[in-house]
Amino acid sequence: MFLHLSILYLFDLPLWEHQLPLSYVSNFVLAASIVWLLLSVFEKNKDQVSFLFMGISLFKFISFFVLFYPAYKADGVVQKMEVLTFFIPYFVGLSLETGILVQKLNKI
After folding, report:
1. Going by C-beta distance under 8 Å and a sequence separation of 6 or more, which residues neighbour residue 18?
2. Nearest to residue 81, comparing CAs of 27, 33, 11?
3. pLDDT value at position 13?
4. Predicted local confidence at residue 99, as pLDDT
């Protein structure tokens, strides 16, 4: 989030608009929960982890869409900064989840 805020500051853009803190906090909570769930399932049933990961990723995307889209669409237009405020934390979390899962799978 610090890097995101720094870039916004550098380009003289509003720092706390478009639900930036909520986006990072909710994404962090979901990502941590997903990693915990995947690691706990991994120990019991390694064969189902990839299917669970895909299903949870879909759930995560839908939950973010439901949580953020109404606020972003309230003015009738979804701005580029609103899209970035949503997708940057989403892809950071997704990258971390994928990286942790790949490391775990490589140890098999």
Report:
1. 72, 79, 81, 82, 85
2. 11
3. 60
4. 92
CA distance 90 to 82: 13
Distance, in Å, from the CA atom of 102 to the CA atom of 62, rounded to the nearest integer, reads 23
Q: What pTM was estimated for this model as a whole? A: 0.73
Sequence ranges of the domains in the chain: 2-106
HEC string for the chain:
CHHHHHHHHHCCCCCCCCCHHHHHHHHHHHHHHHHHHHHHHHHHCHHHHHHHHHHHHHHHHHHHHHHHHHHHHCCCCCCHHHHHHHHHHHHHHHHHHHHHHHHHHHCC
